[in-house]
Amino acid sequence: MKHQTWQARRMLWVSPWALTGLMLLGACASTPPPNEELAVGKAAVERASGPAAAEAPTELAAARDKLTRANLAYANKDYALASQLAAQAEADATLAEAQARSVRSGRALTEVREGLRQLRDEMNRK
């Protein structure tokens, strides 16, 4: 009798854990592979690699690192993490592009101001 009671208690204790484990496996299995997110992240990093490479190296390095980690997560079938990292890589690459444009715009503004200053100096001499 004691043995039967112990087994019944054990089943009551194990079954919630087993059910939780099955639910977690089901949730993981339902996450589709983030193929599109990875492609978009890769395209964003490649697009930013040209002009942003010299003008926003930190942001571009972060984007490349996150894309690498996203590919690793994908290979390990951790699709939720892969999707999240791919989106972050895209955001970092977009930030790198924006900062590169800002740096270039700042340089162009400085050149225009210098040109205006030189024109004023010439006009004042005459």
Overview of this protein structure:
The protein has 126 residues and is mainly alpha-helical. Helices cover 90% and strands 0% of the residues. It has helices spanning 2-30, 35-49, 52-55, 57-75, 79-125. Helix 2 runs parallel beside helix 5. It starts with a helix and ends with a helix. The relative contact order is 0.11. The model has no long low-confidence stretch (mean pLDDT 84).
In brief, what are we looking at here?
The protein has helices at residues 2-30, 35-49, 52-55, 57-75, 79-125.
Helix content: over 70%
Nearest-integer average pLDDT? 84
Q: Class by helix and strand content? A: mainly alpha
**What is the CA–CA distance across the termini?**
115 Å
Q: Detail the poorly predicted runs.
A: none
Task: Classify the beta-strand content into a percent band.
Answer: under 5%
Number of distinct helices: 5
Molecular shape: rod-shaped
Biggest pleated sheet: none
Care to count the β-strands? Answer: 0
Helix and strand element order: HHHHH
Query: Radius of gyration from the CA trace?
Result: 28 Å
